[in-house]
Specification:
Elements lengths: L1 E9 L4 H14 L3 E7 L8 E9 L13 E6 L2 H6 L4 E10 L12 H8 L6 E3 L1 H8 L5 H13 L3 H12 L4 H24 L1
Parallel strand pairs: 1-4, 4-5, 5-6
Antiparallel strand pairs: 1-3, 2-3
Helix pairs in contact: 1-6, 4-5, 4-7, 5-7, 6-7
């Protein structure tokens, strides 16, 4: 088992929380994980990316080379476009369709989505809406993690356990809302897969 994941978004969208959940779940699954992250110029609104490499073998580098990512998991659609050169053939983009307009001349969302649809069966997620349905709009990052879960190759139980551990200090209600958001994303992804 070996998977390279690029997480992309902007500051404040929960990219590093997604990375922390996947990392915990990978360690609980006795897998090796290497991670590196890059923060944008500002805490909120700047580009944030994280490279996650997960394997049942030794991993020698933290960075993912162009053309070798098995997945781009993005919480912002324009940021997903930025990392297309990293995507391996027949690999997958999973992205929120909710734009965070943080630059002048932000492209039309229709143009961004048209480009993303040219890749291998992208999973396009209305994360904000699903997060609201789960009970809190701030859980859209967990919706996105859930949408990616069927392709990460770590057991759902391990991912949910890691969510519980990460949010434990905030109380059981926060844990429950985040797990509900995760399941909303997972359900959407599984529905899209059966439609292909």
């Amino acid at each position: 088992m070996h998977i390279n994941i690029i997480l992309a978004g902007v500051g404040g969208q929960g990219i590093l929380t997604i990375a922390a959940v996947i990392g915990r779940a990978a360690l609980q699954s006795n897998l090796t994980i290497r991670q590196t992250e890059v923060h944008g110029m500002s805490q909120r609104g700047g580009a944030v990316q994280s490279h996650l490499r997960i394997s049942n073998r030794t991993i020698y580098s933290d960075l993912i080379a162009e053309g070798t990512a098995h997945m781009i998991l993005s919480v912002e659609p324009h940021e997903a476009l930025r990392y297309l050169p990293f995507l391996a053939p027949q690999s997958r983009i999973i992205t929120s369709i909710d734009p965070f307009i943080n630059v002048e001349n932000y492209p039309a969302i229709e143009d961004i989505l048209a480009e993303l649809r040219r890749t291998n069966s992208p999973v396009l997620v209305n994360a904000a809406e699903l997060a609201r349905e789960a009970g809190n709009a701030r859980t859209s990052n967990m919706v996105m993690l859930g949408a990616a879960a069927p392709y990460i190759r770590i057991a759902t139980e391990q991912l949910e356990s890691a969510i519980g551990e990460l949010f434990h200090a905030k109380g059981p209600d926060i844990v429950d809302i985040n797990i509900r958001a995760f399941r909303k994303g997972q359900e959407l992804s599984q529905t899209q897969a059966t439609e292909l």
